[in-house]
Amino acid sequence: MRTTQNKTLPLVLLFAGSMLFAGRAAAQDVTIPVETQHNAIVLQTDAEKHLNMVYLGTKLANSAEYARISKMYRQADDSGVQNDVYTPSGSASLGEPAITVTHADGNKSLNLVYVNHTVSKVSDDVSLLVVTMKDPVYDFEVKLYYKTYYKEDVTEQWSVIKHNEKGVVTLNKYASANLNLKGNTPGGFWLKQYHGNWAMEVQPEEARLTHGIKTIDSKLGTRANLYEHSMFAISMDKPATEDEGKVLYGALEWSGNFRVDFELDVANNLKIIAGINNAASEYHLKPGVEFTTPAFLYTYSDHGKGDASRKLQSWARQYKIVDGNGSRLTLLNNWESTYFDFNESKLAGLLKDTKKLGVDLFLLDDGWFGNNHPRNGDNAGLGDWQENKQKLPNGISSLVKEAQANGVKFGIWIEPEMVNPASDLYKAHPDWVIKQPNRPEKYFRNQLVLDLANPKVQDFVFGVVDNLFTKNPDLAYIKWDCNAVIYNAYSAYLKKDQSHIYVDYVNGLYNVLKRVRAKYPKVPLMLCSGGGGRVDYGALQYFTEYWPSDNTDPLERVFIQWEYSFFYPAITSSNHVTDWGKQPIKYRVDVAMMGKLGFDIVIGKLSEDELAFCQSALKNYDGLKDAIWHGDQYRLASPWDNDVASIMYVNTDKSKAVMFNYLVNNRYGSGTKVPVRLKGLDPNKKYRVKEINIFPGRGSVLGNDDQTFTGDFLMNVGINPKTNASHTSVVLQLEAI
Ligand code: GLA
């Protein structure tokens, strides 16, 4: 990250720790390039000391030229073109605001002018730019934070808002970031966005943005991503492909209501404003108190969506998710094999099956708790986190021991933010429940949400996790679920500040998760929300993995996992082999292997061959998991456009790779007819290609020919994985020799 004031500032200051430029702005325009390995965003003051974002794109070879960029454009004037770095409302800027306030005196006008900025280095790779802006009339300040990850080309941007007015100021809108993309894109801007529903997560749509404002948002409170996601891609000029085109990826790190506005102005500039959704959420800010918005995450690539996604995946592994460079546990889950219907002897059998299958851990799902209101269905028991004495007379601790006796680990499902009206908790603490005092209760999956704005509720939720680990120190895994949205938003705790509920809920949740991580830094936690209702980096910074969807039909999962992978690395994607769909076990296992592999099937129902296949696939997975979890992912053929979807993962030194091929079209003659070109290999290395995960009794699709090729050949000519109606999924392993 570097800073220049009209070319005069010596570059020595570049990484000189914390620097302050207060008071020098009046004399000259200030130009602040924020550079990463390949990209730059450039901020610059104008004659009125407004700070504008004048550039976002490939970084220039000669950084002195950044100062000249704005002269190429018509300046902000009555043409309606504005580039404010954080658009205030009620003064000179008339576009969609990033921030709207009501001052202590009732006035609604905000003007923000540049005061100073500092740049500091957090590490060799990470820098932090902080820009301070103030209102010349009101004692009101906004600091913009840009945390840049140089090698990964990723930026996290957020704002901190503060004032010293004589009374409370209401924040009516308070975005995290406001980007401006210049209109020198003759083909316009193309938005790729995601919508979905239960079992239909991350459905993509891509379209050219028209003038005016397009908004994607959520008002669901919890399970905020159930219908829409804050993650998106903006392509410039034309939709970027996997390997070509200019594309910006963005997402809000926030597990609650979000709002992203895309405003295309009269000069074809695109303003992107991302933040917490301000709907029904005015925030009352006392003098001297700081309000910190969540980070908006973005990366840019001029080499297409594949490059952008590898940057995000690598960033997430290095900096965001828990133990991103570490290991994960394969597992057997009992949800689909038993649902709520189990007891100790059934579980003892499943623990034996866990060992027999060859996975690391048994995960006990929903249904283990509640006594006065036993959890025998989804209509009772949530909130009463004591073992059900009928099902588990000897408690969780005996199961943990039993697991150990079988040489496997034990994990458990919880949904600690929720309560069923049929529970002791609901009766003991009705004031802990989010519900309107004077309206009938409205349930989602027969349950209500606990009020995490209330510190006592935070203690309770933390206690659910802490008690489990305290009583069972060998407990090795938790699946944290969240199955309801917030209806009838009202917090008995917040009293007059009801409009804080959505924000304080999420911050309350993060307080709990911070406490969990402070005490249990590395224990694997799966983030689940009735499927992928809550997949975002705000939450994922506390989790090791997420549950993409309850839809485990592998045909559907090819598409779902494909789309999530643009934002999230494979190591975070929990993929379970279940009985959903009509595909053979081989196809189901092959699809689940492109992430963190797990099983949720009745092992006893597998034929001898099927079991042997699963066991040997797990061994293959063991040899390849380093490439899948920590390597680079390349999308070779999209399931949306081809009969066969092909994806590969290459480990860091390019000595090992795996290529997954899945038939996704069952029409006559569908299959791979031509070779698929591989990516990411070393052209000079020789690779031995071998089909793995071959079902007992079948031969390799590759036949008996010599299967040793140079990376050069494999990337320019390709290899035919011969995936078709008789071989619906094919996994090829590549090893450098
Ligand atoms: C949610 C989860 C499922 C399962 C059930 C249990 O739907 O997504 O995987 O855990 O809850 O009730």
Automatic annotation (TrEMBL):
GO biological process, one term: carbohydrate catabolic process
Cross-referenced Gene3D superfamilies: Aldolase class I, alpha-galactosidase from lactobacil brevis, Golgi alpha-mannosidase II
Family to which this protein belongs: Belongs to the glycosyl hydrolase.
Assigned keywords, A-Z: Glycosidase, Hydrolase, Signal
Occurrences of domain Glycosyl hydrolase family 36 N-terminal (ranges): 50-286
PANTHER family on file: ALPHA-GALACTOSIDASE C-RELATED, GLYCOSIDASE FAMILY 31
Domain of life of the source: Bacteria
Name the UniProt record assigns to this protein: Alpha-galactosidase
Pfam families: Glyco_hydro_36C (PF16874), Glyco_hydro_36N (PF16875), Melibiase (PF02065)
Span of the signal peptide: 1-27
E.C. no: 3.2.1.22
Catalytic activity: Hydrolysis of terminal, non-reducing alpha-D-galactose residues in alpha-D-galactosides, including galactose oligosaccharides, galactomannans and galactolipids
One GO molecular-function entry: alpha-galactosidase activity
Residues forming the catalytic site: 481 (nucleophile), 550 (proton donor)
Keyword Signal: yes
Record domain Glycosyl hydrolase family 36 C-terminal: where: 645-734
